Amino acid sequence: MADAIPTPLDAGPTREARRRVRSKRGPLAYVLRTVVVLYLFFLVVWPVSVVVQRAFAPTDGKPGGVGPLWERLTDPAAIYAFNLTLTISFWAVVINTIFGVGISLLLVRHRFPGRRALSVLIDLPMSVSPVVIGLALVLTYSTSLGIFGDVMQATGLRIINSTPGLIMATAFVSLPLVIREVVPVLEEVGEDSETAAKSLGANGWQTFWRITLPTIKWAVVYGVVLSAARAIGEYGAVRIVSRGAEFNGETATLLIQNEYQAFNEAAAYAAAFVLVVLAVLALVVVTVIRPQESHRS
Amino acid sequence: MSTLDTERPDPAPAQPRLRKRRSRRSTLTRASGVGLGLAVVWFSLLVLIPLAAVVIAAADGGWSTFVNTITDGDTAAAIRLTVAEAALVTVVNVVMGTVIAWVLVRDRFWGKRVLEVVIDLPFALPTIVAGLVLLSLYGPDSPVGVNVVNTRQGIFLALLFVTLPFVVRTVQPVLLELDAEVEEAAASLGASRATIFRRIILPALAPAITAGASLAFARAISEFGSLVLIAGNQPRYTEVASLKILKYIEGDQQAAAASVAVLLLLVAVVVIVVLDIISRRVAARG
């Protein structure tokens, strides 16, 4: 990828020489390679391919193929579910991107009391169980149980069992993704060009739009793709804060669970197929963006 | 926050004194101060207050209620099973993850780039789809005649799937940076392959392996989505902690749910602290 650009790492023996040394392999290397390929095949590749196959397979006496799959996906319940998932994910990603870029700038460019604590706490959402996240939101915002229940009751605002709750749950689980991508880039580029822009009379906004944002552009895009993938696929937290009934808070992932448990496996596999495709798409986009980023820095 | 609160009402004359203090304690301008305030408010409403609410709900009945809940037969069994499965999965990941990272870095063969994508697939797939994926091959109408539904092996398999990338992705970059010359030097001095691995490679990889292992362990402890369709929720057999929480919530026993949730939260916090210590130690070493 970055072969064309000489880096300090290349000093001394050339990369090629090093590679030659490293690829000297005995029988052990072949054993390990076989073990790895088989492990990944049985754990990931084969199961995923069976899901894809099932999505196109004939069911209930109907022939399989693209037509029936399309029919199952354009079922009103499925359309509602995917629509809801996309709406929630859109808002969660928008919120996380604004919040993420803002907090990254604050964490990297400023010093303030509690900065270290904040940077550690920011990572917390990624390691909290989705069920616990759902429970936490219910215990805070539910009208009957929540600590803000009275406020919810008084204002008539509904969060739990309604779309705002779904957006919050989704924003919670994908919160650190943008920040994790943007912070290292900001740290690496330093603030020389920002200081230069400011000394030439640019105000804060101009510096941000013309200098800072272009440098972190790819990191933001990367973080957005990761957040979107995570948001679309969220299940656990959403399950707790949503009613999860057909046409009533049933997201795509909840649809898969409901249909599968209702022995309507064809519909479950059809929806799962779409999510598999989206996940692979996200992976491809991410691998395409990655090299670009390393070329730039 | 306290700096911001005292700053705003301060009139202009106090400016020079404030500057001086700011340069020591914070570099916030007025605009970024407001931004930080907003960010902290949102972060509190979304994350901190809800997580605190869980702890409050768990502490509501006092220490004895908390202890009674988590030592209650079914719940204690669920916690034991979760920890045991997570530990086992972590051990497999430490070995397999290191081997996979090794093969990806040191070996070269056709299709290696495909494997790179395959490694990330479990991260990218929604957890409920991960469960369905495994069920389609190892479930009720399995084409290979294996059915792991409602078994502990099924839980093990699902956890193995969702934790696959952690150790691989933490070990891989370290292995890439590892200098082959040191290994060659050791080899030229007569060290065997096993010695080189044990004395040179393993110590260098140890922090990364530990970091990956803690991430995998935390994920396995808290996993929910991929287990919903597979585990079957049989008390004292296939019921794990996260599914026990769900059962409590659905049974309107929020306090009990919160007690188990606090345990999971504790694991998450411990893992974050461990990772922070590792990354600081590695950074200090240079």
TrEMBL record, chain A:
UniProt KW Membrane keyword: yes
Recorded topology in the membrane: Multi-pass membrane protein
Residue ranges annotated for the ABC transmembrane type-1 domain, each copy included: 82-286
Location of the protein in the cell: Membrane
Alphabetical keyword list: Membrane, Sulfate transport, Transmembrane, Transmembrane helix, Transport
Residue ranges of the TM segments: 28-48, 77-108, 120-142, 266-289
InterPro entries listed in its UniProt record: MetI-like, MetI-like_sf, Sulph_transpt2
Primary location: membrane
CDD domains, A to Z: TM_PBP2
Superkingdom per UniProt: Bacteria
SUPFAM superfamilies: MetI-like (SSF161098)
A family per Pfam: BPD_transp_1
Keyword presence, Cytoplasm: no
Subunit structure of this chain's protein: The complex is composed of two ATP-binding proteins (CysA), two transmembrane proteins (CysT and CysW) and a solute-binding protein (CysP).
PANTHER family for the chain: SULFATE TRANSPORT SYSTEM PERMEASE PROTEIN (PTHR30406), SULFATE TRANSPORT SYSTEM PERMEASE PROTEIN CYSW (PTHR30406:SF1)
Chain's role: Part of the ABC transporter complex CysAWTP (TC 3.A.1.6.1) involved in sulfate/thiosulfate import. Probably responsible for the translocation of the substrate across the membrane.
Name this polypeptide is given: Sulfate ABC transporter permease subunit CysW
Automatic annotation (TrEMBL), chain B:
UniProt entry tagged with the keyword tRNA processing: no
Keyword terms: Membrane, Sulfate transport, Transmembrane, Transmembrane helix, Transport
Pfam families: BPD_transp_1
NCBIfam families: 3a0106s02, permease_CysT
Protein's membrane topology: Multi-pass membrane protein
Gene that encodes it: cysT
Name by which UniProt lists this protein: Sulfate transport system permease protein CysT
Domain ABC transmembrane type-1: start-end pairs: 79-275
Stated family: Belongs to the binding-protein-dependent transport system permease family. CysTW subfamily.
Keyword flag Cell inner membrane: no
Basic and acidic residues: bias regions: 1-10
Subunit organization: The complex is composed of two ATP-binding proteins (CysA), two transmembrane proteins (CysT and CysW) and a solute-binding protein (CysP).
Function of the molecule: Part of the ABC transporter complex CysAWTP (TC 3.A.1.6.1) involved in sulfate/thiosulfate import. Probably responsible for the translocation of the substrate across the membrane. Part of the ABC transporter complex (TC 3.A.1.6.1) involved in sulfate/thiosulfate import.
Transmembrane segments: 27-59, 79-105, 117-139, 151-168, 200-221, 256-278
Superkingdom in the source lineage: Bacteria
Organism: Aeromicrobium alkaliterrae
Cellular localisation: Membrane
Region (Disordered) residue spans: 1-22
InterPro entries: CysT_permease, MetI-like, MetI-like_sf, Sulph_transpt2
